[in-house]
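Bit of a strange request maybe. I'm writing a small parser for structure token strings and I need a real example to test against, not something I typed by hand. Could someone generate the tokens for this chain?
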Amino acid sequence: MPRPPRLSPDAVATALAGLPLWSGDADGLRRTVELPGFRDAVAAIVAIADVAEELDHHPDVDLRWRTLHLSLVSHSAGGVSELDLELARRIDALLP
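Reply from user aminoacidic:
Good idea to test on real output. This should exercise your parser:
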């Protein structure tokens, strides 16, 4: 199945307006989430992993005690694609 193409900087900027918890540009999206404790952060990673597997698109996740640093980029597209935006939306639904 072909992967979606890289989005233009303008398309990413427009999409980010609807994703206020995320920052970034056409090269990648980022979000930091602070959870109540370490186990909550690990549980969030497991929930994100389930969604990532559904989409066959996987984020970079950095866990620091109870803080998650999330990065989304479509390496095959060389930047942000529609898959990254969909994963960001799904993560926001899991971690409002």
